[in-house]
Amino acid sequence: MLRSRSGRTWLLLVLATLAAFELSGHAGFGRYAGLSALLMAYIKGRLVVLDFMELRRAPFIWRAMSEAWLLVVSLSIAAAFLSGSVANPIV
């Protein structure tokens, strides 16, 4: 499984998901936990786009558009999170 790129990517996605899940249980970290979870989501999204949607070897324009879209969405969510316009869920 670890010999193929997709196998290594899958394992990294699973580990990042477990790390984000563990991080979500530590509300004391506040914004750092939220930003860390957003960063992990961006990295996971990029891995999915490049490796599982096979855009790593796609023409530059398709890869650039996909990565730009992912970056814009991630930065928009982070900006909303940091501005406080995202409602805090009731725990």
Protein described:
The longest helix is centred in the C-terminal third of the chain and has 24 residues, at 60-83. This protein has helices spanning 5-24, 31-52, 60-83. The protein is mainly alpha-helical. The chain is flat. The termini are far apart. It has one domain (5-83).
What is the element string, with H for helices and E for strands?
A: HHH
Q: Tally the helices: what do you get? A: 3
Number of domains: 1
**Major sheet size, sense and barrel closure:** none
Low-confidence stretches: none
Mean pLDDT: 84
**Structure summary, number of beta strands:** 0
Helix-residue proportion = over 70%
Cα(first) to Cα(last) distance is: 39 Å
Strand content: under 5%
Shape: flat
Which class of secondary structure composition applies to the elements? mainly alpha
| Radius of gyration, taken over Cα atoms and rounded to an integer in Å | 15 Å
